[in-house]
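User: Batch of two.

Assistant: Item 1 of 2:
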Amino acid sequence: MSDQTARTIREFVLTRFPSVALDDAVDIFTLGFVNSLFAMELVMFLEKEFALRIPNEDMSLDNFRTVAAMTALVGRLRSPDTASVGEA
């Protein structure tokens, strides 16, 4: 699942910044293209695409810096231990 998750996230980022050489470890915030609006788009994309809710305590910039970090975040939030996160 994580390979597909990473691919999906990478494709989303590349739709906004197609000329960027992007691998899973590139800090997209240091590239100079990302602003606060795109950061919110990332959150909304991850929540919608992966049917999850990102809790406030996970709204750390470090969770969104790289494709690998976002993939790990999605994996944590979709694990059986956190399956009920966002359900109410």
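Item 2 of 2:
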Amino acid sequence: MSEFTTPTTAAVLTPPARGAIATVSVQGPEAVALADRFFTSLGKIGVCDANVGRILVGHWQAEDEPIGEELVVAKLAPELVEIHCHGGVQASQRILKHLASAGCQVQSWQSRTTSEHADAIIAEAKLELPQAVTSQAALHLLDQANGALTREIVTIGNLLDNANFEVAQEKLDHLLSLAPFGRHLTQPWLIVIAGPPNVGKSSLLNKIVGYDRAIVLDMPGTTRDVLHATTALDGWPVQFSDTAGIRVSDDEIEQAGIAKAKVALKTADLAIVMHDATDLKPDELDQSLKELPAALHVVNKIDLADDLQVPESGEMLATSAVTGQGVPELISSIVSHLIPNVPQAHEPIPFTSRQIDGLRQLHQQVQQRQIDDALQTIQTLLKA
């Protein structure tokens, strides 16, 4: 293969898990020759003789192996062949081993994706797409894979070339405002449920996620560690954390749980602070509202409370984790707090730390009218 300046590479494109079909992609000047070396079609047609687009069924077998594997080979281009074998790791790895023994370079699907795109942002979008856990998140990443963010950055560069600094800065302001949303397309929003012991935190978590993730006992201090549950609310990925009840305790294990609860509160995108409808203390409630004004405050156990008086100060929701009353309204409020403005379809959105850091640097350079540096930053953002 040394006579070729472009190497022939092979990569598994399907996830490394058990499945019906695994796909190995072979690309490069010797892709067809390598396929013909190990593959014999049932119709006795070689891959080299097949037309582009032809699908062949046959056996894949090395010379020293007594038994081959029945599979499908597709000739997608003069230098691109896909091999579709039995799912799982062993079959695809066996094919890679054969190809490597004949001089083919084995690479990861990530390396293959990066090498196929000169545009770094499009490559990053395609690398991030498998990490999207909801269809809505994937659609926004797909827009970036189709060039939405690239086109916007190119537009900003054209504005700088024409000395239209104000509009360029406005566009950068808007992109950076979407950065938290973009990062959460592959990383769930973190929601911490906090409050005193036995207020129904674990019961509420179980009601929202739809299964018993947390143990529920009528005993203060039951939850000693931070329990996590990932789900989707209105199509957006979120991770709930059920924390230990915050109170004064002499129990060392419970104290450790309370300490973890306080740390989780500091790192959360949203805190849900729960209160007991059967034991509302106005003074403590007012103090809680003042200490965590950005939190969602929830009065739980309304099914057990008579003459419930919900304070008018601050946002307060009433729920019953047992009957489900108020839970749909709580979910809607959570989503509106996390994502007050959902980006439109095809809107450019930065979604990696590299992009966000580069846009912040670009914003500063535009503010200081460092145009040459700004244009270089744009090139860095776009080039793989």
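The mean pLDDT is 86.
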